[in-house]
Amino acid sequence: MYTGFIEKIFEYAVSGRIEAGEKLYRDFIEIPFVVKNETNFLLIEFTYEGEGCRLMIGLIDSTNSLRGWCSRGDKKYTVFISRNSASLGYIPGDIVEGMWRVFVRLDNVPKYGCIYTLKVVGYNTELSNMDFDNLGKVVSNLAKILDLQKFLKEYPEFFLVHVFPYPCREHLESREKNTQERSSSRWYRGDLHIHTVHSDGRFTVCEVIDLARSKGLDFIALTDHNTIAQNIEFTKIGRSRDILVIPGMEITTFYGHVNVFGINRYIDFRRRSKEDFEKLIEEIKNERGLASINHPVVSREPICRDCDFKYRDIENFDTVEVWNGLWHLFNNEALSWWHNLLAKGYRVTAIGGSDYHGVYVVADIGEPTTWVYAENLTVEDILKNIKKGRVYITYKPDTPIIDVKIFDKKGNVYTIGDDVENTDKNVDLIIQVEKAKGAILRIVTDKAIHRIANITENNFIYRERIDIEDTKFIRIEIGNYSNPYELIPQNSDDILAITNPIYIKTP
User: Fold this and answer.
1) pLDDT band at 303 (very low <50, low <70, confident <90, very high)
2) What is the total count of domains within the chain?
3) Residue 168 belongs to some domain of the structure
4) Are 319 and 386 in contact (CB under 8 A)?
5) pLDDT in tens, 490-506
6) How far is 87 from 93, CA to CA, in rounded Å?
7) What is the pLDDT of residue 446?
8) Residues forming beta bridges with residue 123, ordered by sequence position
9) What angle do CA 13, 107, 334 make, to 5 degrees?
10) Edge-to-edge strands, sheet with 413-415
11) 20: phi then psi, degrees, rounded to nearest 5
C-alpha cells in the first residue's frame, strides 16, 4: 500500500544475559548488527530487566563513529535515527550500510545478572527526509499524502519519533535583543556546566538559553553527558545574538567526569585507565579544546556515585571545576586540591559551573557564575582567556564584582591571570569589591592567609604595599568564615567569590 513511501529493509532481534562478573573487568559490552543497503531510517528498541539492574546504551555506526548516547537509566530505550532527525542525545545523518554496534554501559549488574532484548528495524522511507523536531507538521504533511489512520495502524512504531524537542529558531529570534556589546574588552559572565534534554536535563536547548538570558549571563556551555546532540541542535538553530553558546560535552565515566569545551565533534568517552585519560586530554588539546576536571572530590552517595576524579596525579588538564553548584556540597575539598596544585607550581585555572539539570534543582543556572575577561565575546576568546587564568567565580551572576590589580615600581599593571616579574620586593596591591558589604576579604598566598579585611561598604577598596619575595601567587576570596585564618574554608562557610591567582615569577 505504501510502496515508494516506506519499505522495511531488515529486522534484527537478539536477547541475552549480562552476568555480574562482567562488570569486574569491563564497563561496556557491544551488540553488533548489520545495516543493509538502502536503509535510511533506523528504529532501535532496547529493554532490560532484573532487580537492581541499571544499563545505558549508545550507538556506533559502520564508519566507527559515535552516533549518540542515552543517559537516563530507563528500563526501555527507543531510539530513531534518520538523515534529518534523531532521538534526544543522538546524531542525525546518513545510515551507512555495514556493521553497526549498540554498546551497553554496565552501570549496575546485580549478582543475578541482567536480561536484555535488542530489536533493530531498518526502513527505506521518505520520512527520512523530514524533520521530526515538530511532530505536528509531520502529521499534517503525512495526512496530505496517505491515509494517516491506516498508516499508523500498520506502522505504530512511528508514534515513537515524537521525542525530539520542538525547534526553537523562531522562538529565539522573537525574544532576542542585541543588548550586549560583543567586541569590547571586559569581564563576561557565564555558566560552564549545563545539561539539557539531550542527556538527563529537564529543559531544551532553547529553554536553557532563555534561563541564562534571564540571569543576565553572556555565555553558557552545553555539556550534556557523553553526547554532542545539543551542539548539533544549536547549529541547526544557527545563532543566538545575545548569548554565546560554547559547544561542550561532559565525558562521564566510572572514574570521573571531564568537561570538553570548544570541540564540536564526538570524542570517545569510553575511558578506564590513567593512560586512557592522558590520551583523552592530549586529544582534546590537539583539537584546540579545553579539558576540565569536574567536581573532582564529590563521590558521595546519593549525590553522585562516580563523580570524583580517580587519577588526580594527571597533570596536563587545563582547568578544574573547584565550585560545582551549591558551595556547601564539598567544594572546599576541590578548592584544597586546586590550591595544592598551585603551590606545587602547576598552572591550572579554577572555574565554576552550576551543573544545572532542571530536576531536583540545588543550584540554578549561574550559581556559581564564572567571569572571564576577554577581548571579544567569542568562543575562541573566552576559551583562550580561561586558559590564561583571567577568571574569577562568584556565587551569583550579579554579586560580588571584583577588580584586583598589582602595580610595580616601573608602572606596570597586572591583574588576575597575569605574571608579575619579581624584580621588586614590594608592589602595590589594590582590590576593589562591589556588592559584598559585611563579608570578609581574604588575601591568600601559596603559604598562608596573608591578610583579612572586613568589607565595610558596597563599594570597598583595599590597598596594601605587599612583600612578594618568596611568594608564588596571590589570589582573593570573599566570604563569611567560621575561621578566616584557616587556609581552606570549611564546607559550612558561605563563600561569595574566588579569584584565580596573579602569579609571581621568580628571577
Assistant:
1) low
2) 3
3) no
4) yes
5) 999 999 999 999 999 87
6) 12
7) 96
8) 8, 41
9) 150
10) 413-415, 401-407, 426-434, 459-467
11) -60, -35
- Ramachandran area for residue 5 (φ above 0: left; ψ -120 to 50: alpha; else beta): alpha
Q: Cell numbers at residue 174, please?
A: 522573537
Query: Minimal CA–CA distance to 444: which of 326, 322, 308?
Result: 322
Under DSSP, the state recorded for 306 is T
Which residues, 6+ apart, have CB-to-CB distance to 137 below 8 Å?
131
Q: In this structure, are 57 and 190 located in the same domain? A: no
Query: Does residue 16 lie within any of the structural domains?
Result: yes
Whole-angstrom CA distances from 438 to 46, 328, 400, 453, 483 are 56, 20, 12, 10, 15
CA distances from 26 to 19, 66, 88, 398, 477 (A): 12, 19, 26, 46, 43
Of 63, 66, 62, the residue nearest 103 (C-alpha): 66
> What domain range is 130 assigned to?
6-163
What are 94's three cell numbers? 546518513
Note the residue count of the chain: 507
Instruction: State the CATH number of the domain containing residue 227.
Output: 3.20.20.140
- Give 411-415 contacts, CB < 8 A, sequence gap 24+: 414/502, 415/373, 415/390, 415/502
At position 325, the amino acid (one-letter code) is: G
Residue 413 is which amino acid? V
Look up cell 551497553; give the residue.
Answer: 104
